[in-house]
Amino acid sequence: MNVNELNVIRNKMNKQFINRQPANDATTFFKVGIGAAGITAENKLLLNALIEAVAEKYDSNALAMFDNELNKGVKVVGTKGEKYYENAKASDAMKIVEESL
Amino acid sequence: MKQKIAIPFDGTPEQEKQLRAVLAELKSVPGGLMPALQKAQGIYGYLPKEVMIIIAEEMSVPLSEVYGVATFYAQFSLTPKGKYQIGLCLGTACYVKGSGEIYNELVKLLGIESGGVTPDKMFSLDATRCLGCCGLAPVMSINGEVYGNLTVKSVADIIEKYRQLEG
Amino acid sequence: MYRTHIMVCGVAGCASNKSFKIVEELNKQLTERGLNGEVKVITTGCFGLCAKGPIVVIYPDGTLYHSVKAEDVTDILEQHVLGGKPVERLLYKEQNGTVVNSLKDTEFMKKQIHLALRNCGVIDPENIEEYIGRDGYQALAKVLTQMTPQDVIDVVLASGLRGRGGAGFPTGLKWKFAKASEGPVKYVCCNADEGDPGAFMDRSVLEGDPHVVIEAMAIAAYAIGSNQGYVYVRAEYPVAVQRLQLAIDQAKQYGLLGKNIFGTGFDFDLEIRLGAGAFVCGEETALMTSIEGKRGEPRPRPPFPAIKGLFAKPTILNNVETYANIPQIILKGAEWFSSIGTEKSKGTKVFALGGKITNTGLVEVPMGTTLREVLFEIGGGIPNGKKFKAAQTGGPSGGCIPAQHLDIPIDYDNLISIGSMMGSGGLIVMDEDNCMVDIAKFFLEFTVDESCGKCTPCRIGNKRLLELLTKVTEGTATLEDLDKMEQLCYYIKANSLCGLGQTAPNPVLSTLRYFKDEYIAHVVDKKCPAGVCKKLLKYSIDKEACIGCGMCAKKCPAEAISRTDYTAPGHKLASMAIDNEKCVKCGACMSTCKFGAVKKG
């Protein structure tokens, strides 16, 4: 194994770790509101899209999760302050992540 | 205090074959006597004199040295163990939480002390060093299975459960 | 990409509490519910909250569930994973009843910093790629491709890292001496013998993050000029041995161990050697003698192992926790590490909290944290409303710390100044129901049993010391005996060959220092104030409370109970009484009496 191959494995695993770090390491949170409808196929797609987008941008300080105290949409809480996207859809995920990281 | 039982050596030819294969590999390993004794005990359950003689021959070490090493370490046993090997932890955390009382109860229930084996060879008892499960103190292990948060009553129930297994 | 990770602790106490059944049930139901692509279950290392195990943590929220059973899996999946609402009854509650959702917000975790335990509870220890994902083997790569051996030693020296096995010798200095010794054959050893009763820090690192030890040993080998390492693991840790062996095999498979690592021409191989139940083999020269296949007897120093150690070659031996800090020191630098801790004790220390404390388990705190913070904030205080009496650090080599020193900042030198020592990290708490003389005797019995027998001061001195201590607990000692004991302690300390003998008297000395009144009570009043020393206990029957049922007499194995002439007002039968001459202090009468009439004291 050479150092490049080591780094390839590291980068691959980091994407898998996106939603597995202790929350006190994270500085940006993407919260998908499920307070009204609960977990549905639609907001599952939205969450997955956010996770993929975060992984693309590879910021290990970000987390994407469900929030049952938020009724709908996506709330971003992080280093750039707070922002609310009321009618966010899965296709908006990359835009939301880019604006916040 | 070790209990003295004269148990005749009942090693099989298969066991001897296994032993000799292990020794052939360990012969040239620096410091190989320790792993040799550990593996031999894994094969026979304890270290009979007959086995130590074979080890001395194969490893080219005087029998007195083999005996010296075997008797130095608590884990090596020159007497057979019971079918169910009970290890009661007397480490600090367990002791502070009352494992001394549990030990007395076990001595009462089994009629043997630490290092001994019941005449029917069902149970052997050893007061062990810390097992590293201090969050569950007091703790005992039976054939590797760990029982925690012991009380005098729960330990009696556990022994009874094993007795029932034997019918 | 998984949206949820369910971490289940699979080591030490939780494993013994069958946490693997939770994992099995989770995997079964995830398959049945078709959730395998979304939710991942990971069997991970120790979170530290052993008293409340089995522990399950759900990410990304970080929700902490305690005392989980396989039967809880359905609720966890339906309510939490699918429904988005945590399962209330499994949530952790502080002592005042506050519910805390997330591990990081608990009183237990707030003041901790996980450096040595960084990966425990975060990764699957059986998967090398997860270790690599957390910057694993990056430090080794940096060392082999960008640093010289001298650079490595300079960084470790500058970091201020001191040995975590107990003595606190500067790690960089040890490596420096070994580097300066003549090769070509040198050895790197890891002390995973963790013999101190009550200590399980090293076990948790080996079972939760075995690769950190492998990587650190390779770095050490490069620094001193060695190509062969040995990890000496105590036999009482079969799971740790198995995990470590698996990690070594995986590292070899990935070319991170063996020949020509990272193509730099550096070779390093690692082997496990098992202990066989001898506490003394935690001592560095005894450990090496044991690896050599002999009786684990220590050797005189000089020559020190860095000059002449294993197989008479220059050798370094470091503790598991010491190694666990190395990769991060390399990656983040000496300044970062030395910014944590106190002036002379840098970094953090892992403690295994045990005994009379609410949150038994593993904690890692920066040096300088006070004992009060560790015991009463992180540790949750003494259970059952009892009063704190003392905390023992350093195991059988250490001393007890009484209430008057609770505000001492924990570091190597402070602990020595009050008559104890850092030790490997076992921190046992005692309350008002523990007798300090009995505790000293407990430790001394241990060291007498474990003494290798080679040198007279330890072999004979400690035995005589134990006899004197036993006299105290049996009420037959005199005040002169106490003076004799103290003198003997100093003699043994000054003349024993190795650390075992030199420190065996410490528990006696420190209990004499802080709890002299208990010793005096045993010697002069022939009483054990805590009510522990059997021979000093007196059982008696309160003749007013006794209804005369006679059950105690039936149970008494010494036939020491008989009926008196006295019948208490309102009772039909005459009261019973105990003949203290015949009484063997077994306590059967007390546990039999349903009327609370039997008293102990």
Tags for this model:
heterotrimer, A: 101 residues, alpha+beta, Glutaredoxin, four-stranded mixed sheet, 40% helix, B: 167 residues, 2 domains, 4 strands, 47% helix, elongated
CATH topology of the largest domain in chain B, what is it called? Glutaredoxin
List the strand order in the largest sheet of chain B.
2-1-3-4
User: Number of helical segments of chain C?
Assistant: 25
Structural class of chain B: alpha+beta
CATH superfamily of the largest domain in chain C: NADH-ubiquinone oxidoreductase 51kDa subunit
Strand content of chain B: 5-15%
Distance between the termini of chain B: 30 Å
The chain-level structural class of chain C is: alpha/beta
Report the β-strand fraction of chain C as a percent range.
Answer: 15-25%
The CATH homologous superfamily of the largest domain in chain B: Glutaredoxin
| Computed CA radius of gyration of chain C, to the nearest angstrom | 27 Å
Task: Detail the poorly predicted runs of chain C.
Answer: none
**How many strand segments of chain C?**
20
Assign an overall shape of chain B.
elongated
Distance between the termini of chain C: 65 Å
State mean pLDDT of chain B (0 to 100 scale).
88
Tally of helical segments of chain B: 7
Structure description:
The complex is a heterotrimer of chains A (101), B (167) and C (601). Helices cover 40% and strands 22% of the residues of chain A. Chain A has helices at 3-17, 41-57, 93-100, and strands at residues 28-33, 62-67, 74-78, 81-85. A four-stranded mixed β-sheet of chain A has the order 2-1-3-4, covered by helices on one side. Chain A is elongated. Chain B has two domains: 13-72; 84-165, 3-Layer(aba) Sandwich (Glutaredoxin). Chain C is an alpha/beta fold and 601 residues long. Chain C folds into five domains: 4-105, 3-Layer(aba) Sandwich (Glutaredoxin); 128-338, NADH-ubiquinone oxidoreductase 51kDa subunit (Rossmann fold); 348-431, Ubiquitin-like (UB roll); 436-523, de novo design (two linked rop proteins) (Up-down Bundle), CATH 1.20.1440; 537-600, Alpha-Beta Plaits. Chain C contains 25 helices and 20 strands. In chain C, the strands form six sheets. Chain C has a five-stranded mixed β-sheet. A five-stranded mixed β-sheet of chain C has the order 13-12-16-14-15. Chain C has a four-stranded mixed β-sheet with strand order 2-1-3-4, with helices on one face. The longest helix of chain C has 17 residues, at 479-495. Chain C is globular, with a radius of gyration of 27 Å. Chain B binds chain C through residues 30-35, 37-38, 65, 68-69, 72-76, 90-97, 128-137, 139, 144, 146, 148, and chain C through 12-13, 16-17, 50-51, 53, 194-200, 203, 235-238, 273-279, 290-296, 311, 352, 354-356, 360-361, 392, 395, 426, 428-430, 434, 439, 442-443, 452.
